[in-house]
Amino acid sequence: RELEAILRRAVHNSDFELYFQPLYCQLKYQACGFEALMRLRDAKGNFIPPDKFIPVAEEMGIMDELGFQILNKGTKAAMKWPDHMRLAVNLSAAQFESGSLVDHVHAALEESKLPAARLELEITESLLMQNTQRNLRQLNALQELGVSIAMDDFGTGYSSLGYLWQFPFDKIKIDRSFLGGDEKDNAKAMQVISTIIALGHSLEMRVTAEGVETERQVEMLNKLKCDQLQGFYLGRPAPEAELSKYWEKDA
Ligand code: G
Ligand code: G
Ligand code: MN
Ligand code: NA
């Protein structure tokens, strides 16, 4: 099990990489933050997809520790960005199960000095399907720290709506599959997206569209008053050293 050995080493030495994908604010049409995405390489230096290594890290029981390291690395990186740039970090169910999540987030903020208001945590609804009440309490405690909470991959789960109104998410991120259809599906997909945006706004949540790959989509989403956009058209995940172009062009 080569992957297990790679993971064990990565968590022991904390030497995995974080990539960052820009989040665009619709009105200003400029990057206003980055989502941290973990990257791990095999012995040949090729990337192992997160969809492959995260489940293994969870089985190995190291995802809680790895998640803490991601929070630490991410918040430290964000301290080097301009003040208006926020950081989004994905959370895994293992971090909620361990019971240390709130302490870990608090510690990462203290250690890095990143203001809580600049941190956003992304969860998927599957996380709320088990231990719902306990996990909702942890989300509440996180919001009390001043961080915001986003529901990721919205629309792909079994009961997106069921959890949406039970908790004051600050943001929903519409899963990129809604933008992925071909041209003739576009009108229908836009209807659905428009409805999700209205739903989010009626619950006082911001709405992000993921998977934006064309200028046409940018225009349509702007018309629909989508709050934030993310996708390869606007920027691919990139290493820390390559991010400054996103704020240098603002100046
Ligand atoms: O990074 P990529 O574009 O391949 O992401 C694939 C999946 O892996 C996404 O669902 C993303 O949320 C998840 N993922 C990427 N980085 C992290 C991370 O640091 N922590 C957790 N929990 N999930 C991550
Ligand atoms: O589940 P989550 O949203 O955290 O996953 C982020 C993943 O989505 C990353 O793997 C990232 O590479 C991928 N991604 C981001 N933007 C796009 C896009 O425009 N198109 C496609 N196909 N994937 C994207
Ligand atoms: Mn995400
Ligand atoms: Na997502």
From TrEMBL:
<protein>
    <submittedName>
        <fullName>Protein-glutamate O-methyltransferase</fullName>
    </submittedName>
</protein>
<feature type="domain" description="EAL">
    <location>
        <begin position="1"/>
        <end position="251"/>
    </location>
</feature>
